Structures are given as structure tokens and as C-alpha cells.
Amino acid sequence: RNMQFELYVGAMLTLGGASITFADPDLRLLNGTENIGIAAKRISSPKQFEKRVHEGARQIKKLNDRGLIAVNLDVLVKNLTLEGDISERGERFNMQIEEKMRKLDKFFEEKTELLGIINIGHRTEWSFKEDKPIVDLAQFYQFRLFFNNDEEERLWKPFFQNTIARIEKSLSHL
After folding, report:
1. What is d(CA 107, CA 82) in angstroms, rounded to the nearest whole number?
2. Which pTM value belongs to this model?
3. What torsion, rounded to 10 degrees, do the Cα atoms 161, 167, 168, 172 define?
4. Which backbone phi and psi does 54 adopt, to 5 degrees?
5. Main-chain dihedrals φ then ψ at residue 52, nearest 5 degrees
6. Helix, strand or coil for residue 31?
7. What is the mean predicted confidence (pLDDT) over 129-140?
8. CB 123: neighbour CB atoms within 10 A?
């Protein structure tokens, strides 16, 4: 399952136009001449969230690297309702993980090696109210970026804005 999540993160970022390779810590992302690490973490219970984020940060720091942590939050969104439109669903996802993220604010401020965190969750819901069963597949993701200076923000902010826009456009056609 860990490898599946690494492959998923790599595929999602590639779908967004990013150049991804598989190397320590789990993945590498190239933007111009900048090459950063991505530590992919799965959690199997809500209590593991902070622990896995800390593990990801250690993986990145161990390589004297700058990087991202990608976290699979399926376990946190398993009871999230899929009623409403895409923006309502996204708002519920953000609210669901906000408290956990707030607990880590100080941690992220202190970890200058972290460029950000990508929170990813999936939820599937079946309906048997019609003549035929209907499946509703939802994918949630949230990019939170932490810039150490203006130069870093000028390099990475447009990159991620474009990557996210391409991911959304690609996924809207599925």
C-alpha cells in the first residue's frame, strides 16, 4: 500500500505536468534546476497523522534536502459525506483536516527544510436507490506551501499553481 501511494502521488503530479522520478526519500520533483524530495506517507489511523508527518520531515532532513510531505488521509475522510457540489465537498474536506493541520503550525514554522505538505484523500460511496447501483468517487487534495523567502516563493508558487490547475483540468475529464 505504501508503494501504491507513492505511485499515485507521482502519477498525480505527472498529470499536472511535473517531472517526477523515483528516488529517496520516495520521489523527486524537478522544477528548473531545483530538485526536491517528496516523502509519501500513509496513515492507518487518525492518531498516526502527526507521527507520519514527523517521519516524512526526518526523511527529508536526513538527505540534507528541501522537500514536500504527501500524506494519504483516506482514513480521515472515510465518513465524509459526498452530498453537494464539488466546492461543498472540498470545504468539508478542509474542515475535516483543519484541526490536525493547526496542531502542526509551529512544527512547520520550525522546519525550514519543508516546502509544504500535500494532503490527499479518497472517498467512495455507493447508492442503491435507483434501478442500477451508482458509485460516487471523490478525490480530495490540499497543497499547503511554506516559503522561506521571496525568491523561493517566486520559484515555487507559480509552479504549484500551474500544476494544480493542470491536475484539476485533467481530472475533470475523467
Report:
1. 32
2. 0.91
3. 160
4. -65, -40
5. -70, -35
6. strand
7. 89
8. 18
